[in-house]
DNA sequence: TAGCAAGTTGACCGCCCGGTCCGTTTATCG
DNA sequence: CGATAAACGGACCGGGCGGTCAACTTGCTA
């Protein structure tokens, strides 16, 4: 157990400022936003960043962890929703909405993330699998798609809209709808390749 | 007009080696593959890279231009194919297959690309619009999707599979199929957002 | 309010990158 | 061949990055 003595007031404030600034900076400039810029945006010195987060990756991980946890809470709730199809769609909508900006994708890179992130991510994968299974059993998702498929596709709407220079911030909804229609059983054509085992 | 005296034999060979090495390196490491690594892989000095290509971006542009031109040739042919639905699917298949590896996406970044690339890209966009229009008129693509939608979605299969660590090199086919089913009129639900004007 | 640990800071370090430059090598052609 | 311009290569440069550190400031507590 880490015996966490509470943070000093200014330190706690700076930590919050840093997380907010980093989220904005990553959103605008992608993962190679510089630590110096993040510090400037937060109004603190660069050294302060590294007092709170061992490395730039740890800072990123803290942000990502927050988001995954939030998503997990939503998923947990939706598992008990009445309409399994609507529940899955809502989950994907919340996920896309939350990651409205640049990618950050929490699936990614496996650059040896802290164990907490790995665990939260695994939990999210589990939730998605459950949501998909339930939707499939109710016949609102085609029989040949798996949770892994949905996990992979769930980042696509944000990705494709990132190429539109002055896109409406809601454009991703259009592509989520198209992809979701592709997941439905009506008019489904057989898939040419088995699903991945991984996620 | 650039009065192009023919390249010396060794220079021409090195140019080819460089393009090949750069394509592989970009494929493996993404757009931030280093010029030094590319040179090493091609078996030439770093200075030679810049003799052939003014900047790293010009090198990238040369590769991208090749691919877009190849794609345009395919598109041109498919515009005269008998089955418009199969033609569109084949075009997207060729596009995805060619970009099997990492992204490079030719839509992207607008980092002031050379005029040739911009023009070739515009021509490709035009071709896609035509393919989509023809497919829509034949009722194999839903009425509410546009060429711009397909252009955006066409990179998604490669993107999503890039997150699977040891994916089969053909996994993208699965997601192209799902997305393509989403483009079909059968079982289509109305789209929540107008299409983008841009591409 | 005094003392101290906790927190802050920005100069600094080493690294790697894209790009330059010039001494050297080499394909080409009269 | 031998002369010459084209091509080559790698040391070198400036800049920006992630990360460190020691001197300084400040919130907490007794």
Automatic annotation (TrEMBL), chains A, B:
<keyword id="KW-0805">Transcription regulation</keyword>
<protein>
    <submittedName>
        <fullName>Helix-turn-helix transcriptional regulator</fullName>
    </submittedName>
</protein>
<feature type="domain" description="HTH tetR-type">
    <location>
        <begin position="12"/>
        <end position="71"/>
    </location>
</feature>
<dbReference type="Pfam" id="PF21597">
    <property type="entry name" value="TetR_C_43"/>
</dbReference>
<dbReference type="InterPro" id="IPR036271">
    <property type="entry name" value="Tet_transcr_reg_TetR-rel_C_sf"/>
</dbReference>
<dbReference type="Pfam" id="PF00440">
    <property type="entry name" value="TetR_N"/>
</dbReference>
<dbReference type="InterPro" id="IPR001647">
    <property type="entry name" value="HTH_TetR"/>
</dbReference>
<keyword id="KW-0238">DNA-binding</keyword>
<dbReference type="InterPro" id="IPR049445">
    <property type="entry name" value="TetR_SbtR-like_C"/>
</dbReference>
<dbReference type="InterPro" id="IPR023772">
    <property type="entry name" value="DNA-bd_HTH_TetR-type_CS"/>
</dbReference>
<keyword id="KW-0804">Transcription</keyword>
<dbReference type="InterPro" id="IPR050109">
    <property type="entry name" value="HTH-type_TetR-like_transc_reg"/>
</dbReference>
<dbReference type="InterPro" id="IPR009057">
    <property type="entry name" value="Homeodomain-like_sf"/>
</dbReference>
<feature type="DNA-binding region" description="H-T-H motif">
    <location>
        <begin position="34"/>
        <end position="53"/>
    </location>
</feature>
């Amino acid at each position: 157990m880490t015996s966490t003595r509470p943070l000093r007031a200014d330190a706690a404030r700076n930590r919050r400022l840093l997380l907010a600034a980093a989220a904005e900076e990553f959103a605008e400039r992608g993962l190679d936003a510089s630590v110096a810029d993040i510090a400037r945006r937060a109004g603190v010195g660069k050294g302060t960043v590294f007092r709170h987060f061992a490395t730039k990756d740890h800072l990123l991980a803290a942000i990502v962890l927050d988001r995954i946890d939030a998503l997990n809470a939503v998923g947990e709730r939706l598992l008990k929703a009445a309409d399994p199809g609507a529940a899955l769609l809502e989950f994907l909508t919340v996920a896309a909405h939350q990651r409205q900006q640049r990618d950050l994708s929490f699936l990614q890179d496996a650059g040896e993330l802290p164990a907490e992130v790995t665990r939260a991510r695994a939990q999210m994968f589990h939730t998605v699998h459950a949501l998909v299974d339930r939707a499939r059993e109710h016949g609102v998702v085609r029989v040949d798609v798996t949770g892994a498929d949905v996990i992979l596709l769930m980042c696509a709407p944000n990705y494709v809209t990132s190429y539109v220079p002055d896109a409406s911030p809601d454009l991703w909804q259009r592509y989520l709808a198209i992809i979701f229609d592709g997941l439905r059983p009506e008019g489904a054509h057989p898939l040419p390749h088995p699903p991945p085992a991984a996620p």
